[in-house]
Amino acid sequence: MDNVPLEGKRIADSRVVLNMLMNPEHANALGNVHGGVIMKLVDEAGGLAAMRHSRSPVVTVAIDSMTFEEPIFVGNLVTLTAELTYTGRTSMEVCVRVEAEDPLTGSRVHTNTAHLVYVAIDRQGRPRPVPPLLVETPEERLRFQQAQERQRVRKERHRREQGLSRSGDDLPEEG
């Protein structure tokens, strides 16, 4: 790839909204939708937003904690809204917000939000540069700054974990 600077892209240009009706095959015996089903949909929505932004294949490299605040039931219409909050050189953070709606009453509830990190890859599977994110509003700027802090914390946690795994041979045996 040439060393030509990439043109920035607006958050709205890559936003993804997915809707899916939850059916019995998505649920446990109590009628609650399995968390793993929602996690898969969150990753798909986030991955699509990252692909739209980078116009390349992406791989998931991190998913921040995902707490389910409210249950999702069979018959609910689930809406996932994914938008970029941060870009690095090759990585992108995507925020995915999940809502469940009872289509018969119109009642909607926010069930969870997750932040995921993707890396754009080239045809050989190597990381490739992504366009910078253009933040246009004070709210977008705040989300970008919060995402920068999350990225700093992720990198620090990764360094700590790498150090622990290397020093694991020095730990006393249990017994």
Structural description of this entry:
The protein has 175 residues and is α+β, with helices and mostly antiparallel strands. It has one domain: Thiol Ester Dehydrase, Chain A (Roll). It contains two helices and seven strands. The strands form two sheets. The chain has a five-stranded antiparallel β-sheet with strand order 2-4-5-6-3. The chain is globular, with a radius of gyration of 19 Å. The model is unreliable at 170-175 (pLDDT under 50).
Briefly summarize what is shown.
By secondary structure, the chain is an alpha+beta fold. It contains 2 helices and 7 strands; from the N terminus they run E-E-H-E-E-E-E-E-H.
Features:
disordered C terminus; 7 strands; 175 residues; 29% helix; single chain; two-stranded parallel sheet; 2 helices
Helices, by number, come to 2
Number of domains: 1
Beta-strand portion reads 25-35%
The CATH topology assignment is Thiol Ester Dehydrase, Chain A
How are the SSEs ordered, and which strands pair?
Blueprint: E1 9-10, E2 16-21, H1 35-54, E3 58-63, E4 77-87, E5 91-101, E6 108-120, E7 133-134, H2 138-167
Parallel strand pairs: 1-7
Antiparallel strand pairs: 2-4, 3-6, 4-5, 5-6
